[in-house]
Write a structure and sequence with these properties.
Length: 356
């Protein structure tokens, strides 16, 4: 693997993940915007630990990292006997699958890697490792291509000029390097439209304040930061033209799991007659889940709510809830933007037709 050149292109100014000296390096998003540092991973377990610790986050980026984690493990084991190689890869798939429960792209990417493994299962470990590296390369390239395509489709929906509100981070940092919600923004600007972005802090992990605001600044895109409680005020004053968010999982009926707080914003957007768009690649649609109520909602460490970066502002011992995602019903979604098409008022039939 060390002899392989980097196969990760970076269509924005952000390197979310990259190859260096046969290792996968992940931009440590816990440290942004104060420091730009990378965490090097040489094994599947190290990639899983990085995903779980939020070094890398965002459903498409998690999927890409997991695929690369399998490729890393295969390269590490390529010189061992066949049985040990197979056992090691089984363990790698299991540890990566357990890293985060909600983002369906993780499981989609692992299924693609399993299919590639099964297609060459009788080959020598070294040949299988090369095949898995190729598949990881394709998964990363496919993510960038899908985000570019959905970005162009979504850009056509935006007026000129337009003030876009977004929640959490659905940009280059959440993907292989272009973005879903922010991919729409990037494509609209590339098409000559005058676009500015309003981003909320996104408590409790502050992805909007720390990541989206920083990312937009890196690309010179006009951005204004607000607190999570300001969206309704801005909408009531006519200061938001459209809302665009990403997704961690879309159910078969069009219900959307996204960062906690998304549901509240969707309700406010409906109240004020503002389009609420969800930008997500087809890999985020989970046709096996009938509706949003079946989506597993991850709950993280209470310490994330009590404080941040070593500071605590909550009283000691206070009870905490920390669900990471919520469910926005399909009826609140103006359109689902994918690489294959824009689905207005998404429902079960329209999504099924999209996936054919």
């Amino acid at each position: 693997m060390a002899s392989q050149p980097s196969f990760i292109s970076h269509p924005s100014n952000i390197e979310t993940l990259r190859w260096r000296a046969g290792r996968l390096e992940l931009l440590d998003q816990r440290l942004l915007p104060a420091r730009v540092e990378f965490v090097a991973c040489a094994t599947a377990r190290e990639v899983a630990d990085a995903i779980r610790a939020m070094v890398i986050r965002g459903a498409p980026a998690i999927g890409c990292a997991a695929a690369c984690g399998i490729a890393l493990e295969a390269a590490r084991l390529k010189d061992v006997p066949q049985r040990e190689f197979a056992s090691g890869l089984d363990q790698a798939f299991a540890v990566l699958a357990a890293a985060r429960p909600t983002a369906v792209n993780l499981f989609w990417a692992l299924e693609r890697m399993k299919a590639a493994l099964n297609a060459t299962k009788q080959a020598r470990p070294a040949d299988i490792a090369a095949r898995l590296l190729d598949e990881a390369r394709r998964i990363v390239a496919d993510d960038v291509a899908a985000n570019r395509a959905l970005g162009e489709r979504g850009a056509a929906l935006l007026a000129d000029p337009a003030r876009i509100f977004t929640h959490c981070n659905a940009g280059a940092l959440a993907t292989a390097g272009y973005g879903t919600a922010l991919g729409v923004v990037r494509s609209a600007i590339a098409a000559g439209k005058r676009i500015s972005v309003i981003v909320d802090e996104t408590r409790p992990f502050l992805q909007g304040a720390r990541l989206t605001a920083w990312e937009l600044q890196q690309d010179g895109i006009p951005v204004t930061l607000v607190t999570d409680g300001m969206s309704g005020h801005l909408m009531s004053r006519g200061e938001i033209d459209a809302v665009i968010v990403g997704a961690d999982r879309v159910a078969a009926n069009g219900d959307v799991a996204n960062k906690i707080g998304t549901y509240m914003i969707a309700v406010l957007a409906r109240r004020h007659g503002i389009p609420f768009y969800v930008a997500a690649p087809l890999s985020t649609i989970d046709r096996a889940l009938d509706h949003g109520g079946a989506i597993v909602i991850e709950e993280r460490d209470p310490s994330e709510v009590r404080g941040h970066a070593g500071l605590e502002w909550a009283p000691p011992g206070v009870s905490v809830r920390n669900p990471v995602f919520d469910i926005t019903p399909a009826e609140l979604v103006t359109a689902l933007i994918t690489e294959k098409g824009v689905v207005r008022a998404p429902d079960r039939g329209k999504i099924a037709a999209l996936l054919q």
